[in-house]
Write a structure and sequence with these properties.
74% helix, mainly alpha
């Protein structure tokens, strides 16, 4: 065989490898082909091509593997069992930037599915190679490495700690200072995934100066970047009052409040979540947000939102109100109660209704004035229906019941209490009767209305155990009226009168 023929054979072999790997990569991009490819043993065919002499074949083989592993955990597991990861990690340090991006993509695709698969990526030494990639000049390589790190860190504190121990955090903070928007996004996302698991991990992120750099990007026009920035700030702030104060001190307010009207739903939700995490800690932090117009902004946000996006806003109003009478009054003055009533009416999910019921309880439990604001919004019947509805979740029933009790114990607005005399079960009814027993002795107009509306008659019909608390309240109410009035409205009194008429002998 001549030299020319030998060269032709090698050329044909290279063309065949190239065509094969490109076809597999193309087929792997469509989910309907993945099972067939797996059954055909494509993993074992691609593995040797990762070490091919031709760089484009190496890169395309890695891309194909990444697409397959990305599809489901079975295929990702096959990559691990096929002993492919060590080859990728080895090549990650040696090859060109195109291969490095493809190799990092495979690591990310494997790690995303479960903590076990992410641990397999860590165990093969991937973190050290990814750290080296984060120091590359090419922003695309940095981005691919940051993606892989983010997918490893998001699973649990142990994996996140492994990422931190590899020295990743300072490099991610450098990445968010790079000019490329895509790199900024992924680096912020990775910092968020690291910080979310524990106060210690969040503190590690804080110690690298991340807050100041994240704060500089809150008004960036790129919506996807703002999502990640606010997510990272929220994940940092949620762990302790100290880091929450540091986030506030970064002077992100009131500018961040503007983003509650952002066209992007996820930006709005992440901002509301950040505000919730800050306000939950202390009256002082809540007061700072209130002073900057945060309560009014969140109430407007609730009006512009639907579904789960509302949840952090609802909870924020509850946390603010829980701290003090004045802060709860700030929510009332800003028209928070009618907006929460709309949320309770509109939302179908039990967890949203439960959060709203809880928020009402935090607002109304302070003073009669606070409770009256809830009562005037006609919230009592809604809370009672949610508590009594057998289809409500246990959590919703518990929160509706607790909110009702805590507000009723402060409520002196009798027109809102009276309908509950006819509808409330005994465990709620006793709180209603208690309030009447407190108000009626001191209000003659209310005593008269209570008779003409039928309230006194209804109280006489309540069957209470002698000596019970509810009986004591009924006795206190009855003592506000002449004995003959009480007797007149007692059950059976009309029959007694008729008997007296029958037995009466005219003179």
């Amino acid at each position: 065989m001549s030299q020319r023929q030998v060269l032709q054979v090698f050329e044909q072999y290279q063309k065949a490898r190239t065509q094969f790997v490109q076809t597999v990569a193309d087929l792997a991009s469509r989910p309907q082909n993945t099972e067939t490819l797996q059954n055909a043993g494509v993993m074992s065919l691609l593995r040797p091509l990762l070490l091919d002499a031709v760089p484009t074949i190496q890169q395309t083989a890695a891309l194909a593997l990444g697409r397959l592993a990305n599809y489901n955990d079975d295929l990702a597991e096959a990559v691990v069992k096929g002993d492919i990861l060590p080859q990728l990690v080895y090549s990650l340090a040696e090859q060109n930037r195109f291969y490095k991006k493809a190799a990092a993509f495979v690591l990310r695709a494997v790690a995303k599915h479960s903590p076990e698969l992410a641990q397999a990526v860590v165990d093969c030494g991937a973190l050290d190679a990814l750290v080296v990639s984060l120091e590359e000049f090419d922003p695309g390589v940095k981005e691919a490495a940051a993606w892989a790190i983010s997918y490893i860190a998001r699973h649990n504190a142990q994996l996140s700690q492994a990422v931190v121990d590899a020295g990743v955090v300072p490099l991610l903070v450098l990445c968010i200072q790079e000019p490329e928007i895509a790199l900024k996004r992924v680096a912020a996302s990775a910092l968020s995934d690291i910080a979310k698991h524990s106060p210690e991990l969040a503190q590690t992120v804080v110690d690298t100066g991340a807050i100041a750099h994240l704060a500089q990007m809150i008004l960036n026009p790129d919506a996807k970047l703002k999502r990640q920035v606010f997510s990272a700030l929220g994940q940092i702030a949620k762990h302790s009052v100290d880091v929450a104060e540091m986030v506030v001190e970064a002077e992100i307010f009131p500018a961040a409040l503007v983003c509650l009207k952002d066209p992007d739903e996820y930006v709005r939700k992440n901002v509301a979540t950040l505000i919730r995490e800050i306000t939950k800690y202390t009256p002082e932090l809540s007061q700072i947000i209130v002073n900057m117009g945060g309560v009014a902004a969140v109430i407007d946000y609730l009006g512009d939102s639907k579904g789960n996006v509302r949840l952090p806003g609802i909870m924020m109003l509850g946390y603010v109100s829980a701290h003090s009478e004045n802060l709860a009054m700030a929510v009332i003055v800003s028209k928070g109660v009618p907006q929460l009533a709309i949320c309770l009416e509109e939302e179908q999910e039990d967890h949203l209704k439960a959060a709203t019921a809880w928020a009402f309880g935090q607002i109304g439990r302070h003073t009669p004035e606070h409770a009256r604001a809830i009562a005037v919004a006609n919230v009592f019947p809604k809370l009672l229906n949610l508590y009594l509805d057998t289809e409500s979740s246990e959590d919703l029933q518990a929160k509706a019941k607790k909110a009702l009790k805590s507000i009723l114990q402060k409520c002196t607005y009798l027109p809102a209490l009276e309908p509950l005399l006819y509808e409330a079960p005994s465990n709620i009814l006793k709180h209603v009767i208690c309030q009447f027993s407190k108000v009626l002795p001191h209000d003659s107009k209310a005593r008269r209305l209570f008779v003409t509306s039928g309230g006194l008659k209804k109280v006489q019909e309540i069957k209470a155990e002698p000596g019970s608390a509810i009986q004591e309240y009924i006795n206190a109410i009855n003592s506000c009226y002449p004995e003959e009035i009480v007797r007149y409205y007692s059950p059976g009194y009309s029959e007694t009168l008729l008997e007296r008429i029958e037995s009466y002998q005219p003179v």
